[in-house]
Amino acid sequence: MSNQQLDIKFPKGGVFFIVLAVIAIIFISKSTVTIGSGERGVLYKWFGGVETEESPLNEGFNIVAPWNKVFKYNVRQQELLERKMSVLSSNGLEIQLDASVLYQPKEDQVALLHKTRGENYLQSVIIPAIRSATRSVVGRYTPEQLYSTKRDAIQNEIFIETKKIVEPQYIQLNAVLVRDVTLPPTIKDAIERKLKQEQESLEYEFRLVTAKKEAEKVRIEAQGKADANKILSASLTDKILQDKGIEATIKLAESQNSKVIVIGSGKGGLPIILGKQ
User: Fold this and answer.
1) What is the pLDDT at residue 132?
2) DSSP per position, 93-161
3) Which of 35, 95, 166, 197 is the most exposed place for a label (fewest CB within 10 A)?
4) What is the 3-state secondary structure (H, E, C) of 24-76?
5) Which neighbouring-strand residues pair with 103?
6) Per-residue pLDDT tens for 79-120?
7) Angle between the 151-166 and 127-138 helix axes, to the nearest 10 degrees?
């Protein structure tokens, strides 16, 4: 069989239309960008740089010029966990501290964040800020305060110090949580022994105060009874006793029970009542 040459002939002007279609497809693909949920887009213009005058691109489908570029930023709350930060207490002892930082870029200022700090703002802003603030705050307290009584105050102060640094740099700081404070073993043991002794002392003082209050209560009750008996004894004269005895005699005489009444034979001239009882 003889070789046959296949000649493919395009319609007149066909190549031009194919090239034009390919260019159009590339143009369209480069002119659209989708911003995901919880993101904002920063527009970088080929002529003019970062667009800071207009609002960042919102979630969803966006059309941009193909020669421009879009940088996507997560604007949801994010967490940075800083482990084993080495800091010095007020008396020069080395302490290790774990802390969580909750942060997010400010949505309406994300373009300024991109222009001034860039996508690496976590390493260039937040991490140095939390470390600096932690060193500054912990240096004001003793190991004992860090370990027990001042934990909440220290956490709040670190948050305030860190916020002063990051907020002007277009980052919103939501919280700083101190998760763990690690002291040298000898210092930790000494603090725990001291805290135990203080607790035992407080318990002993509480028992003493309770016993003293109970004794005072008994004394007051006894004094009250003594005063009542004294008043009662002073008020019971012979005349009153005789009147009370006469009243009782009359009531007994009026009852249906059989009895014998001897008039004037009792103490103080009171009658004696004899009966079956």
Assistant:
1) 94
2) -EEEEEEEEEEEE-GGGHHHHHHHT-TTHIIIIIHHHHHHHHHHHHTTS-HHHHHTTTHHHHHHHHHHH
3) 197
4) HHHHHHHCEEEECCCEEEEEEECCCEECCCCCCECCEEEECCCCCEEEEEECC
5) 78, 173
6) 999 988 888 888 888 888 899 999 999 999 999 999 999 999
7) 140
Phi, then psi, of 196 in degrees rounded to 5? -65, -45
Measured CA to CA, the distance from residue 17 to residue 181 in angstroms comes to: 70
Integer Cα distance of 64 and 99 in angstroms: 41
Hunting for tokens 């690496």 — which residue is that? 120
Q: Is the pLDDT of residue 161 over 80?
A: yes
Q: What's the mean per-residue pLDDT of the chain?
A: 78
Please, are residues 88 and 71 in contact by the beta-carbon 8 Å criterion? Answer: no
Closest CA to 233 of 225, 222, 221: 225
Same domain for 171 and 87?
yes
Q: Which domain holds residue 228?
A: 194-235
Report in angstroms the alpha-carbon separations of 21 from 29, 33, 63, 239.
12, 20, 19, 134
The token pair that represents 44 in the structure block: 């970088």
Q: Is residue 188 part of a domain?
A: no
Residues 102 and 148 in one domain: yes
* pLDDT single digits (tens) 236-276: 666 666 666 667 677 666 666 655 555 555 555 555 555 55
Give me 148's structure tokens. Answer: 């027990």
Both 55 and 142 in a single domain? no
158 shares a domain with 170: yes
Amino acid at 64: V
Domain co-membership, 117 together with 170: yes
**At residue 175, does pLDDT exceed 80?**
yes
